[in-house]
Design brief:
single chain; alpha+beta; two-stranded antiparallel ribbon; 59% helix; elongated
């Protein structure tokens, strides 16, 4: 009884930490689009300044001014467009993280067109899947390291797939039916590793939509 309550407390704490992380990303999304709104507001002033430089014949100054505008606008540009502001931030953030570690990243993920899905729920799924893939690749000492995320609509179902290599032995947790490495099993025992808890969050979100998680090891 006591052990069960302790495990539940630890799991709840980690889940709350992950929820907090998603909330922070949503704040980042708001800040991002606030920056775009300000940029649009300032665009009229920029055009007026460029027109003035053109009329005065200061072509060199006009070129420098336009170059500075390009640099400013690059800060508000995502290299990967998913079709949703929340998943835009998450996927692009993970792409930057993988590039820093020399890991190849490819995305064919497109946010579902159906309004029955909540961006917050999809964000939790995508965030946890990519974080687990990043951690797995980060532990590799040799071999090609890559992360590939994709999505597709199949009848009424929306399918999200993440592929990544790993090194080490993977066994399945009998209770959760989720993979956990033998090393983590020794360290965490039955309370669950961060990796297992992350995937349990994915499973929980999928079940909200009568979905499930299918994990395959090759």
């Amino acid at each position: 009884m006591i052990m069960g309550l302790q495990e539940e407390k630890e799991r709840y704490f980690v889940e709350q930490q992950q929820v907090h992380a998603i909330q922070e990303r949503m704040v980042e999304v708001d800040q991002f689009y606030d920056g775009i709104r300000r940029m649009k507001h300032e665009m009229k002033n920029h055009l007026t300044n460029i027109k003035g430089l053109l009329e005065s014949g200061d072509y060199g100054g006009m070129g420098q001014y336009i170059s500075r505008m390009d640099e400013s606008m690059d800060a508000f540009e995502f290299s990967i467009k998913t079709g949703n502001a929340v998943t835009d931030v998450i996927v692009n953030d993970r792409q930057k993280a993988t590039e820093k570690q020399g890991i190849q990243f490819r995305s064919e993920f497109n946010y579902p067109e159906s309004e029955r899905y909540d961006a917050y729920d999809i964000g939790i799924i995508v965030n946890n899947l990519l974080q687990n893939a990043l951690e797995a690749c980060g532990k590799m000492r040799q071999g090609d390291r890559y992360i590939f995320i994709s999505s597709r609509q199949k009848r009424k179902f929306f399918l999200i797939e993440v592929r990544n290599p790993f090194q080490g032995e993977i066994i399945m947790d009998a209770d959760m039916n989720l993979p956990i490495s033998t090393k983590e099993k020794e360290l965490f025992g039955r309370q669950g590793s961060m990796h297992e808890i992350g995937l349990s969050n994915v499973k929980r979100e999928a079940e909200k939509y009568m979905g499930d998680v299918d994990i395959r090891v090759k």
